[in-house]
Amino acid sequence: MSATHTYDVAVRWTGNLGTGTENYRSYSRAHNVVGEGKPTIAASADPAFRGDRDRWNPEELLVASVAQCHMLWYLHFCSTEGVTVLAYEDLAHAVMTMDESGGGGRITEVVLRPEVTVADAATAEKARALHGKVPAVCFIARSVNFPVRHEPVIRTGGAPAPAPR
């Protein structure tokens, strides 16, 4: 029997400004993402769609999910294959392309740009290569219908490791 996992979250709209959704401009896109025992995430629509730029939007959360999944699997591979990671930061980027009608769009690409610091310069090339193993197992990347590319930078002792030739 296959193992299954379930994930439950609540999304609660908090944007009724007194007249509900009477018209397109009469309500806020503000909402909260809530999980039992977890901090609430203040969210909204993208500012381009009348959202609040001070709150997370679904597109940002999707990109964060892709980046988080990649990082967690990458760190796992490093830990099991002898690469000691000291620091990891991903400057992830997504592109959303609107359809011709202007009424919809979709994420067409995510580029992960992890900057990884490893303890031993001798493991830098292995550290770079391990990014290539992640797409086969990352739950989120395997679930989306757009390409997820990665452009890692590997550092040792705070300096960039030489790029492969």
UniProtKB/TrEMBL annotation:
Gene3D superfamilies noted in UniProt: 3.30.300.20
Pfam families tied to this protein: OsmC
Origin: domain of life: Bacteria
Record-linked InterPro entries: KH_dom-like_a/b, OsmC/Ohr_fam, OsmC/Ohrsf, OsmC_Ohr_Peroxiredoxin
Protein name according to UniProt: Peroxiredoxin
